[in-house]
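Bug #77: duplicate submission created two jobs. Keeping one. Sequence:
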Amino acid sequence: MLTIIVFILILGVLIFVHELGHFLTARRNGIRASEFGFGFPPRIVGFQFMSGKKHEEKLEVESIQMEKTDIKLSDNEEIIKETITEKIHRVPEIVPVKKWRLIWGSKDGDDENEKADLAEARENQETGGTIYSLNWIPVGGFVKIKGENGDAKEDPDSFAGKPAWTRIKVLIAGVIMNFVLAWFLIAISLMIGVPKEFANIIDKNSEIKISQVSPNSPAEKAGLKSGDEVVTNQGEINLKSESEFIGYVNSKKGQEISLKIKIKS
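Kept job's structure:
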């Protein structure tokens, strides 16, 4: 059961990284992706970032007029009146709009809040960006690229409308990302080290250290344990590498062999 779970997890990572390569390359080359999901549908929830333009009006002062009136009264009294006149009118303005919306479930627009969001988006002429979704089947991922089925050839943001070289780059990007992942994992493994089966033992200063013993194997029946060391410079066993030791053991199949074991302290 554990083997199946590990296999599914590894397969899921490979699929997700593969689809991520397609998605990133498509977006970089101006191709629209309607959805990029973790796992496979049905959808649990999705996030969509939208952008557009909103028409607004702002008040603008066109000019200011000032008038002063000097009124002289009797008894040498003088009154100065100042009148300020402002001419204000409304100026139409286009304001950039950026927002995000939440999408519950597989359908888009079947909820009252979603309907309100879509109505506002149409009013503001907003364009829907990619939906980043979390799905119920947690294995791998997927990407929906516009024009991947050969439609919308006339649209500049369609996969089908791009030159052949651009389409090739998008197609091979998934494989390249898998190679990058493999290289990264191998590099990490070499840095931190990984456990090995008894058949993949490690040669170390004329001694082979056993990192793991397979269940029900002849090694386990002989009493070998993880951490024990096989001394390879005694008697007929004068081996210097892992491959030499494996070859020696294979050549003695069906025969009894004598090994000098250094027990783990």
